[in-house]
Amino acid sequence: MGSEVRERVRDANDIVDIIGERVQLKRQGKNYIGLCPFHQEKTPSFTVSPEKQLFYCFGCQVGGDVFKFIELWEKTDFRGSLEILAERAGIPLREQTPREQKRQQERKSLYKVLNLAARYYQHTFLNSSTAEETRAYCTRRGIKEKTARTFELGYAPPGWDHLIRFFTQRDYSTEILLKAGLVLPGKAGGYYDRFRHRLIFPIRDHRGRVVAFGGRVVDDSQPKYLNSPETSIYSKRDNLYGLHIAADGIRQQGWVLIVEGYLDAIMVHQSGWTNVVASLGTALTGEQAKLLARYSRRVLMAYDADAAGQEAALRSFRLLRQLGCQVQVVPLPEGSDPDSHLRREGVASFAELLENSLSLVEYRLKTLQEKHDLSQLEEKVRAVDTLIPLLLEIDHQVEREILVKKIAAVVAVSEDSIWTEIRQYRGRAAKKGRQRDRISLGRNNIEQDFHNKPNTARIKPAYLQAQEVLLSFCLFDDDTRQEIIKELSWQQFTEGAHRELARAIWKVQQEKGLTPAGILAQVGTPEAKTLLSQLSLEDDYFLEQKEKRLRDCLFAVKRKQLEDQIKARKEQIISLEREGKSDQREKLLREIGNLQKQFHNLA
Hints:
Layout (H helix, E strand, L loop, with lengths): L2 H10 L2 H6 L5 E3 L2 E4 L11 E4 L4 E4 L5 E2 L1 H9 L3 H12 L8 H30 L4 H9 L4 H6 L3 E3 L5 H7 L5 H6 L3 E3 L5 E3 L4 E7 L5 E7 L8 E3 L15 H11 L2 E4 L2 H9 L5 E3 L7 H10 L2 E5 L4 H16 L3 E4 L8 H8 L1 H9 L4 H12 L5 H16 L4 H15 L3 H17 L30 H15 L1 H10 L8 H17 L3 H7 L3 H12 L8 H33 L6 H18 L1
Helix pairs in contact: 1-4, 3-4, 11-14, 14-15, 16-17, 16-18, 17-18, 17-19, 20-21, 20-22, 20-25, 22-23, 22-24, 25-26
């Protein structure tokens, strides 16, 4: 994929429009400001420049172009960001084969059909007299109208072909309805509606596109739940119910709550925890875990307190831990789920459960207590054997010691005996080549989670500050830029991002004159893009006392270069003397003398 296509996509997606669809922006001078979506703040420090097509947050030091913003917002990589923006602008990223074109067109048709079906079901739920029983059911379950609208709850009326007739009147074929999973073929020919007389839950992907539906009966009919089949745009393994609604809440809270069912997610959201998603099934899949980890690495799990829910929690816990997530389990009372607990015990009680969420070891210990008589010798041994491998997965020694104390107290054995078992287990595992003692949570090196508090910027040395002022001069002042380019080469900028940005400015200036788009096209690394955003959107305070600032900064950069050259030659002399090669020593000493003269002449 060439740079020409990237620039077409960039030009077609104005950064103010893209960010403005997701962040409330307010005009301030020539820029826009708003609250940063990547960390919590009360005073706006997030700045967007329509002129330079860049954004930068002076609070968490995150910045870049429109591609970088979508990367962070959608939790994707550059390729994913490019695809999202290209699709939005209707720009093909490469020439497609006829088969690919047909498949893409089919996917577009499916999204369109499913979105229209969601609107049909919702309209029926809100307005049709046939939905009165379903609306009453939602009222009994405590679902408010505002919540129903937020989750776009719908109703599939009774009868065999209501949805088919709705789409037929709009010239849609039953073939596309079949591919969308909305209809089924009849035994005697023809088709009939898949969902009939059911409360409908539209399922949207993380980008907010309707991809499937879930349907629940409101009486004693069977099956209780009926779900869309897998299609070319939907796989249950790859989606989380309510993620598109929860995304803002997850960003604001810095953690995510995962539950099992549609109604669990809806009631938890309505109760104030807008950072909740549902796993579309009892057990979390690897694909869902990866999707979740893109949004937050702190996860609370509130699965049903039955045997299936407990086992699912244990499996899901391990999946998330392998991805570097910090996971805790909400200890729901036996026989309850988030929905029933909220309706029976209230919001304050559920908040207390969240506050007292448990680690994996604590949760496993709790389930062992509930299922087994730990006063019996055999059950004590079995409980300790079950918990030892989990203890060895804990990276923090203090946490492990605290948990050993808890286990010893509950099982009524000595702490020393548990530590002995830990050592023996470790020895057996090492012997088998399966050492599990220290499983690093950081081994996957997931990119920094911007839900956490902002980075504290380190104090920059004077020469680096001087380089940034010079680069700012180059971005803001044409005459000064010409003078700087005459005085310095881009190689005199020392650190990676500073040197890359300087190289881009020098190259663009030489080839076609400096423009923000031209510089962006030459800058490749995220660090350099962030630096460009930061310098472009800072106040132009450095233009005050311009001549003195320029002179001081040029001096600092040149001095730093000479210091580095002198240091390098001194190190070279030491190295040669160690190797017994002193023939070049005099030459290097002369070079050092010349450099020192240049250093003194700078003043």
